[in-house]
Amino acid sequence: MSPPLDPWRAIDRQPEPEVYVRMMESRGRTPSQARLRRRFLHFCHVWPGFEVLEVGSGSGVVARDLAALVGPRGHVTGVDKSRVLLTAARRGAREAGLGGRITFRHGDAARLPLATARFDCAVAVTVLLHVARPQAMLREMVRVTRPGGVVALQDQDFGTQVLDHPDRALTRRIFDGVTARMYPEPFSGRTLVRRLVELGLERVRLLADVYQVRSLDPFTHSHLRRRAELATRFGLIGPGAAARWLAAIEHADAHGHFVFTFNYYGAAGRKPPHDRSRI
Ligand SMILES: C[S@@+](CC[C@H](N)C(=O)[O-])C[C@H]1O[C@@H](n2cnc3c(N)ncnc32)[C@H](O)[C@@H]1O
């Protein structure tokens, strides 16, 4: 069976899974990403002493920030379906001196290997977009959260990608065409509030944030190169147009006027104290 188009669905079946460890760590270090991740975690109301779950914990970037927030009396559990990413996440936590505060477990978001009502807070950062069964993942996050606890999501919305490029029509064709073929719901960010409300969570809040980059950092560069490659592979553009598109991006960067932004949405809600959620 060939691997799915969205590599995040099956990292361990990719030719070089370690590439994705480096990609997540490099994304995590990007200043704009670090700022919007920390703003989101603040928005989740995670306090010292909390038991927190991170679904789709990847290489552990978010789990390490969560471990700092819960402090020595709290604990973070990360669940991911990629064994390569779990190994990297355990190593990263140990190296950061946080090994005792974080447990990484293998599991599927749609069937969490965890007891009901165990966590004060369950979060997932840029995961919903990638999982095969997003509603099952959300139901599981609600199940394992204690009554009165918080379920929180952050996701991109690929309908909001903006690049200052001389060929706007080509840019839209690449962005919209590629994401429509890769993801069942490329605009997942804008759906988060609705999904939490429909699950019966209370006091659902929204945090809209903008990822913004002014120079071609390694993560952004590889993101845009991959867009061009996929647009070519899907037959949306020819190799010449892809090369011209990338050359204009690199020219903008070399001349100090590269601008790329896209929106990230966070949503958080409380599980009703007397479980009335529709799980
Ligand atoms: C884009 S990464 C995000 C990683 C991390 N949350 C972060 O922001 O650094 C998406 C993660 O979801 C995981 N994933 C995808 N489908 C999954 C599933 N069904 N169950 C558990 N994890 C899954 C992938 O292995 C990957 O680690």
Descriptive account of the structure:
The structure is a single chain. The protein has helices spanning 18-29, 31-43, 61-70, 83-95, 134-144, 168-182, 192-198, 218-233, 239-254; strands spanning 51-55, 75-80, 102-106, 119-125, 145-156, 162-163, 202-213, 260-270. Strands 1, 2, 3, 4, 5, 6, 7 and 8 form an 8-stranded mixed beta sheet that branches. The mean pLDDT is 95. Helix 8 packs antiparallel against helix 9. It has 279 residues and is an alpha/beta fold. The longest helix has 16 residues, at 218-233. S-adenosylmethionine is lined by residues 8-9, 11, 24, 28, 56-58, 61-62, 80-82, 85, 108-110, 125-127, 130-132.
Q: Which secondary-structure class do the elements indicate?
A: alpha/beta
Low-confidence segments: none
- What percentage of the residues does DSSP assign to strands (E)? 15-25%
Largest sheet: 8 strands, mixed
Mean pLDDT: 95
Structural shape: globular
Order of helices and strands: HHEHEHEEHEEHHEHHE
Attribute tags:
279 residues, alpha/beta, 8-stranded mixed beta sheet, globular, binds S-adenosylmethionine
Layout of helices and strands:
Elements: H1 18-29, H2 31-43, E1 51-55, H3 61-70, E2 75-80, H4 83-95, E3 102-106, E4 119-125, H5 134-144, E5 145-156, E6 162-163, H6 168-182, H7 192-198, E7 202-213, H8 218-233, H9 239-254, E8 260-270
Parallel strand pairs: 1-2, 1-4, 2-3, 4-5
Antiparallel strand pairs: 5-8, 6-8, 7-8
This protein binds S-adenosylmethionine.
Please outline what is shown here.
The protein is an alpha/beta fold and 279 residues long. It contains nine helices and eight strands.
